[in-house]
Design brief:
The complex is a heterodimer of chains A (about 575) and B (about 160). The longest helix of chain A has 16 residues. In chain A, the strands form four sheets. In chain A, strands 3-2-4-5-7-6 form a six-stranded parallel sheet, with helices on both faces. A six-stranded parallel sheet of chain A has the order 11-10-9-12-13-14, sandwiched between helices. Chain A has about 575 residues and is of the alpha/beta class. In chain A, helix 7 links the parallel strand 6 and strand 7. Chain A is globular, with a radius of gyration of 24 Å. Helices cover about 35% and strands about 15% of the residues of chain A. Chain B has about 160 residues and is of the alpha+beta class. Helices cover about 30% and strands about 40% of the residues of chain B. In chain B, strands 5, 6, 7, 8 and 9 form a five-stranded antiparallel sheet that branches. The radius of gyration of chain B is 18 Å and the shape is elongated. The chains are: A alpha/beta (about 575), B alpha+beta (about 160). Chains A and B meet through loops of A and helix 1 and helix 2 of B. The complex binds thiamine diphosphate and magnesium ion. The site of thiamine diphosphate (TPP) has 20 residues of chain A, from helix 18 and helix 21.
Chain lengths: ~575, ~160
C-alpha cells in the first residue's frame, strides 16, 4: 500500500512524464513530499501558476507529449485559469493536477477552497474531482487518455488533501475503456472517395491547413498530398509549419493578416480542402462575404462540431487528419489527373503574389519586420519561435518562414498576452538544447516577466526578442485606423529599463536602437551568449503597422494593403 | 423549431452542470430540462426541450456528444415519439368555484390529490399543450400556484435509446 500522494507520482512515472511545472501550497504538500523522494519526474518551480500551465502547454505544443502542471488549491487554481483556457482554445493536450481542501471541508468556504471543477468546467475538455483514493490512479489514467485522444485538450484532476494521505494498493491500468468516450479515428471511406473525386474536378483548388495538421503530426503526409495534387496550400496562424513556408506551393498564412495571395486564393477557390481547421472569424472575415462565392468544401476534422459550424460543408470527413490523408494518398496512388485549368489558377496566384503584400515601409528606425527577417537568417530558420499577442506576434508569423511543424508556438485562439516567456520554458524542457526565441512586445512580456527568475534557476537560455514600440501596438493600430487616432490607454509609459531588469535577474541584456546593429546583436546573442538568456530590447519604429489587414466585418478579399494608407 | 433532445449521461456529480453550462455558454435555449437515473443507476436520462434552426440543432447535438460524460444523444422530435409533462396546480376552491374546479379537473382527466376547505391540488399529465390549455381554461384569479416537471419523452415502437 502506498499513499495517494505516491500514487500521483507513480502515475506520472507510468505516463513517462519527465517534468512537471508547478508551485506548491498547503493542499499539495503530500504530493510535493512524494515528489521529493524520487528523481524520475523533474519539477520546474515557476514564479506564478499561470506560467506553470503555459509552460506545460508549450511542452505539449513543441513535442508529442502531454504537458503536466501541478498547483495548490484556491489561488493556485484561479491563477491557472488563463493558462487552461489558452490551451483549451488551441486544443492542446495537457493534464493539470490541482490540490483541493480535504474532502470533509469541501463546501464550507475552507481556507484556500474554491470550486475548481466549477471554475474550470467551461475551459477544459474534461475535469474530475477525486472522491476516493481507490479511484485516483484510474482517474489520472483517464485524464491522460482524454487529454491526448480525439480532439485534444486540457484535463483537470482535482485532488483533496486527505486523499493524498490515504493508503491504497497501486495498480495502473494499461489501457482504458469508457462507454461515454470513443473518439473517431478513421474517416469514412465513402466520403474520402467522394472528396478525391472532387479534388480531381477542381479547377481553382486550395488546401487550407490548420492546427489539426500539427496536432495529428500530419505535416509530412500533408506535404506529400499537396505535392501530388500540385495544389496551393495556405496555413492558418495555428497551422504554420504544417506545410513548409518556403515551398513553391505555399501561398502563406491567410486571414486577418494573411497574404494577398492566400486570401484571394481562398476566396476564389472552387474547391477548398480544409484540413484540421475551423473557418474561424479571424480566418474567413465576414461570413456572408465569404459565402458569396460558389464553391465546394471538403472538411477533414476530428471534431464533428467543427464541421458546418460556420461554413456549410459539402463533404464532411470526421477523423484523424493523419489517417484521412493517408487514405487519400492510397486512393491517389491509383492515378490522379489534376485538371488542366489548374495551370491557369497558378498563373492567377502568381499574379497575386506579384502584389508583394509583405513588402514594408523603410525607416531610419528599426522596422520590426526586419528584426524577424534577421532572426530567421541568424537562426537558419530552424528555431522554436514562441510569441505573445500583438503586432509582434503577427510580424513573427508573417516573416519567420516555418518549414517544420511544432516550431511556432503561440496562443492563436484565446490570444493570451504573457504566454511567450513561459512558452519558451516549456519548449526548452521538451527540447533541451534547442534554439528558442520569444518574439514579444514590451506590453506582453511584462505579463509574465517574473519567469526570468525561473529561467535563471534552471538555466533556460531563451532569447527574448522584445519588439519595443512603447505602445500596445495592436490596440494602437486599431485606434489609428478605426477610432480617428484617439489613442486611449494604448501607450505604455514608465517602462522599466529592460537591460537592467534582465541583469537584475542574472541574465544578459542588450538594447538595440539602430538598424545596422540588429544582425550583429542577434549573432552575438545566438553564438557568444548561446547558453544565456538574452533580453534583446529592440527599440522599433513605433508607427509600424501590420499589413495586409482585413478589418472587422470586412470580406477576406477586402484587404487594406501597406501602400494604401 | 421545437425539439426534444434525449440524453443518456453518466450519473456523475456535476454531469447536469456540464449540460446546463454548455447551453448557457453557447447561447442555446433550454425551455425545460428533466433528469433522473434510469433502471441502470449509473446512467441518467435527461430530456431537454429546446428550440432553434436546423443548424443550431445540429450544433447542439454535436456539442452534447462531445461532452465526455454523455453516452448517447437523440433528437426525439426527429421521428415518432410520445411526450408527457406533469403539472401540479393549486387552485382556490370555495363556494361555487369548488364544484367548477372539480368539473374542470374531470374534463381534463386531472386528479385532485390534496383537498382543504378552500383549496385543491390538481395533478394533470399530458402533452405540454394540454397543460397550457388547462391553465387557460381556468379563471386566472383562482390559480394559487403551479409547478411543472418539464417535458419528458420516449421514442415510439422500436426506437430505443440504450447503451
Ligand atoms: C491578457 C490580454 N489582455 C489584453 C489583450 C488585448 N491586446 C491584444 S494585443 C495588445 C497589445 C499588445 O502590446 P505589446 O505586447 O506591446 O505588443 P505590440 O502590439 O506592441 O507588438 C492588447 C492589449 C490580450 N490579447 N491579452
Ligand atoms: Mg508594444
Amino acid at each position: 500500500m502506498i499513499s495517494g500522494a505516491e500514487i500521483v507520482i507513480r502515475c506520472l512515472q507510468e505516463e513517462k512524464v519527465d517534468c512537471v511545472f508547478g508551485y506548491p501550497g498547503g493542499s499539495v504538500l503530500h504530493i510535493y513530499d512524494a515528489l521529493f523522494k524520487q528523481d524520475q519526474v523533474k519539477h520546474i518551480l515557476v514564479r506564478h501558476e499561470q506560467a506553470a500551465v503555459h509552460a506545460a502547454d508549450a511542452y505539449s505544443r513543441s513535442s508529442q507529449r502531454v504537458g503536466v502542471a501541478l498547483v495548490t488549491s484556491g489561488p493556485g487554481v484561479t491563477n491557472t485559469v488563463t493558462g487552461i483556457a489558452t490551451a483549451y482554445m488551441d486544443s492542446i493536450p495537457m493534464v493539470v493536477l490541482t490540490g483541493q481542501v480535504p474532502t470533509q471541508y469541501i463546501g464550507q468556504d475552507a481556507f484556500q477552497e474554491c470550486d475548481t471543477v466549477g471554475i474550470t468546467r467551461p475551459c477544459v475538455k474534461h475535469n474530475f474531482l477525486v472522491k476516493d483514493v481507490k479511484d485516483l490512479a484510474l482517474t489520472i489514467k483517464k485524464a491522460f487518455h482524454i487529454a491526448a485522444t480525439g480532439r485534444p485538450g486540457p484535463v483537470v484532476v482535482d485532488i483533496p488533501k486527505d486523499i493524498t494521505a490515504q493508503m491504497c494498493e497501486f495498480d495502473y491500468p494499461k489501457s482504458i475503456q469508457m462507454r461515454s468516450y470513443n473518439p473517431v479515428v478513421k474517416g469514412h471511406l465513402g466520403q474520402i472517395k467522394k472528396a478525391v473525386q472532387i479534388l480531381q474536378e477542381a479547377k481553382r483548388p486550395i488546401i487550407y491547413a490548420g492546427g489539426g495538421v500539427i496536432l495529428s503530426d500530419a505535416a509530412e503526409k500533408l506535404t506529400e498530398l499537396a505535392r501530388k495534387l500540385n495544389f496551393p496550400v495556405t496555413n492558418t496562424l495555428m497551422g504554420l509549419g504544417g506545410y513548409p513556408a518556403t515551398d513553391a506551393q505555399s501561398v502563406g498564412m491567410l486571414g486577418m493578416h494573411g497574404t494577398f495571395e492566400a486570401n484571394n486564393a481562398m476566396h476564389y477557390a472552387d474547391v477548398i480542402l480544409a484540413v484540421g481547421a475551423r473557418f474561424d472569424d479571424r480566418v474567413i472575415g465576414n461570413p456572408e462575404h465569404f459565402s458569396s462565392e460558389k464553391r465546394r468544401v471538403i472538411h477533414i476534422d476530428i471534431d464533428p462540431s467543427s464541421i458546418s459550424k460556420r461554413v456549410k460543408v459539402d463533404v464532411p470527413i470526421v477523423g484523424n487528419v493523419l489517417d484521412v490523408i493517408d487514405e487519400m494518398l492510397k486512393l491517389l496512388d491509383g492515378g490522379f489527373t489534376t485538371d488542366p485549368e489548374v495551370a491557369d489558377w497558378w498563373k492567377q496566384i502568381d499574379e497575386w503574389r506579384g502584389r508583394k503584400s509583405l513588402a514594408y515601409r523603410q525607416s531610419d528606425h528599426i522596422m520590426p519586420q526586419f528584426v524577424v527577417e534577421k532572426l530567421y537568417e541568424v537562426t537558419g530558420g530552424d528555431a522554436f519561435i514562441t510569441s505573445d499577442v500583438g503586432q509582434h506576434q503577427m510580424f513573427a508569423a508573417q516573416y519567420y518562414k516555418f518549414d517544420k511543424p511544432r516550431r511556432w508556438i503561440n496562443s492563436g485562439g484565446l490570444g493570451t498576452m504573457g504566454v511567450g516567456l513561459p512558452y519558451g520554458m516549456g519548449v526548452l524542457m521538451a527540447n533541451p538544447g534547442a534554439q528558442v526565441a520569444c518574439v514579444t512586445g514590451e506590453g506582453s512580456i511584462q505579463m509574465c516577466i517574473q519567469e526570468m527568475s525561473t529561467c535563471k534557476q534552471y538555466g533556460l537560455p531563451i532569447k527574448i526578442i522584445n519588439l519595443n514600440n512603447g505602445m500596445l501596438g495592436m490596440v494602437r493600430q486599431w485606434q489609428e485606423m478605426f477610432y480617428s487616432k484617439r489613442y486611449s490607454q494604448s501607450y505604455v509609459t514608465s517602462l522599466p529599463d529592460f537591460v537592467k531588469l534582465a541583469e537584475a535577474y542574472g541574465h544578459v541584456g542588450m538594447r538595440i536602437e539602430k538598424p545596422e546593429d540588429v544582425e550583429p546583436a542577434l549573432r552575438k546573442a545566438f553564438t557568444e551568449h548561446k547558453d544565456d538568456l538574452v533580453f534583446m530590447d529592440f527599440i522599433i519604429d513605433p508607427g509600424a503597422n501590420v499589413f495586409p489587414m482585413v478589418a472587422a466585418g470586412k470580406g477576406l478579399t477586402e484587404m487594406i494593403l501597406a501602400e494604401e494608407l | 423549431m421545437r425539439h426534444i433532445i434525449s440524453i443518456l449521461i453518466e450519473n456523475e456529480s456535476g454531469a447536469l452542470s456540464r449540460v446546463a453550462g454548455l447551453f448557457s455558454a453557447r447561447g442555446y435555449n433550454i425551455e425545460s430540462l428533466t433528469v433522473a437515473p434510469t433502471e441502470d443507476p449509473s446512467l441518467s436520462r435527461m430530456t431537454i426541450l429546446t428550440s432553434g434552426s436546423d443548424d443550431v440543432l445540429e450544433q447542439i447535438t454535436k456539442q452534447l456528444n462531445k461532452l465526455v460524460d454523455v453516452v448517447k444523444v437523440v433528437d426525439l422530435s426527429e421521428a415518432a415519439h410520445v411526450e408527457r409533462e406533469l403539472m401540479l396546480i393549486k387552485v382556490r376552491a370555495t363556494g361555487k368555484d369548488r364544484e367548477e374546479m372539480k368539473r374542470m379537473a374531470d374534463i381534463f382527466r386531472g386528479r385532485i390529490i390534496d383537498v382543504t376547505e378552500s383549496t385543491y391540488v390538481i395533478e394533470l399529465t399530458g402533452a405540454s399543450s394540454k397543460l397550457d390549455s388547462f391553465i387557460a381554461a381556468l379563471d386566472a384569479g383562482l390559480i394559487l400556484e403551479t409547478v411543472r416537471t418539464g417535458v419528458c419523452g420516449i421514442g415510439r415502437g422500436d426506437r430505443i435509446l440504450k447503451v
